[in-house]
Amino acid sequence: MRHPCLTCGACCAHFRVSFHWSETEPALGGTVPAHLTEKLDAHRVAMRGTSSKTPRCTALDAEIGVRSRCAIHPVKPSVCREVPASWEFGAPSPQCDKARLAHGLPALTPADWDLEPPIAA
Length: 121
Ligand code: SF4
Ligand code: SF4
Hints:
Helix content: 10-25%
Strand content: 5-15%
Strand order of the largest sheet: 1-3-2
Distance between the termini: 21 Å
Number of strands: 5
Bound molecules: iron/sulfur cluster
Number of helices: 2
Largest sheet: 3 strands, antiparallel
Number of domains: 1
């Protein structure tokens, strides 16, 4: 089974992805490439493309529902690590469900995480 996020990408093309500007400042331990962000206010920046009425993160390399990868996965914003996929950790995720449904994809179910191999006879 492939991780469901690898054939999805919906959440990266549904929400505004905003976070504290310090995450783009190397001197403060920030890792997010600043040129991929835009200023929102005195405290926050957002990933470019996600403040639009039809959000799509500039770092998203995907065909939604078919294949998806984050081009800056190792250094992506903290907020991107905080959205769990539904049932990955035993509970539904309203954000995941909302994003998938908005892109015409069914919400994930526990069966999507069935990693158990068939029991040998
Ligand atoms: S919407 Fe859910 S399944 Fe799709 S990429 Fe985001 S967390 Fe993963
Ligand atoms: S930085 Fe990566 S994980 Fe975060 S919204 Fe953009 S593509 Fe998705």
